[in-house]
Write a structure and sequence with these properties.
With 246 residues, the chain is of the alpha/beta class. It has 6 helices and 14 strands. The protein has helices at residues 36-40, 47-59, 98-102, 133-141, 158-172, 220-229, and strands at 2-7, 20-22, 62-70, 75-83, 86-92, 114-117, 120-124, 146-150, 175-179, 184-185, 188-189, 195-197, 203-206, 212-217. A 6-stranded mixed β-sheet has the order 5-4-3-2-1-14. The relative contact order is 0.16. The model has no long low-confidence stretch (mean pLDDT 96).
């Protein structure tokens, strides 16, 4: 699978030579937008989903995009995955970050959401979620091969993009596509640094601090080879861990 990350405005979404295009957290509306979050929220099968489904069908490229989702009662910070055949799956952010998230969103309660695209098992998380190793490990144990993480990471937290994301890929032996913003909203400056990290810990593609499109190839063969050499999952001793996540 060829995966692309669009680090730039959603209204300038590029046509790409890739199987999957990933955009940032809340890319359809903006993230730090206050009450407009609820004004712009829409159902998972709403008008944005219809437009993205048409684009995926036209281009042959699957799309993952962040948006505010409403179920008519609550509003969630969500990411939806759509492929050329239509809507595949939708994930609601489970770990809300500070007042920015907690003021406007209800947390999701489904930790592992997956779908198969182009022969690869895709898992979904959003931003702060990836900073919890338990959640990434749960994906690895459930069979996720490529974890896509739309994010809105701001300065001065570049450490997350540069150090933590490759570490998560290595310790849980999966690929991670981390798609950030690179603009400014109110007092927040988003730091870019989108990347695709391999299970070896190698960064296969890295964006800078401005608008950019990056690509990387993700294969099951590379994942299997890494897991043979880096045996973290096989060497686990779950009987020792009981009670340690309470």
């Amino acid at each position: 699978m060829r995966v692309a990350i669009h680090q730039g405005p959603f209204d300038a979404l590029p046509r790409v030579d890739a199987d999957l295009l990933v955009t940032a957290e809340m890319s359809t509306t903006g993230y730090h937008i206050g009450a407009r979050t609820h004004e712009l929220a829409e159902p998972a099968d709403g008008p944005t989903a219809a437009r993205m489904a048409a684009l995926a069908a036209e281009t042959g490229t699957a799309l993952a995009y962040g948006y505010p989702e409403t179920d008519g009662k609550h509003v969630y910070n969500s990411v939806q995955l759509i492929d050329p055949a239509g809507r595949r799956t939708n994930y609601r952010k489970t770990h809300l970050f500070g007042d920015l998230d907690k003021a406007w969103f209800t947390p999701g309660d489904e930790p592992v959401v997956q779908a198969d695209v182009a022969g690869v098992r895709i898992g979904l998380l959003i931003c702060y979620d990836v900073e919890f190793p338990e959640l990434v490990r749960a994906h690895a144990l459930a069979g996720t091969e490529l974890l896509i993480v739309p994010t809105a990471l701001m300065s001065p937290y570049e450490l997350v993009a540069d150090t933590l994301v490759p570490a998560r890929a290595y310790e849980s032996q999966l690929f991670v596509a981390y798609a950030n913003r690179c603009d400014t909203e109110r007092e927040l400056t988003y730091c870019g640094r989108s990347c695709v990290a391999a299970p070896t810990g190698e960064v296969l593609a890295r964006a800078g601090s401005g608008p950019e499109l990056v690509h990387a190839d993700v294969t099951r063969e590379a994942l299997a080879a890494s897991r043979l050499e880096n045996t973290h999952l096989a060497d686990r001793r779950p009987e020792l861990y009981r009670g340690t996540t309470a």
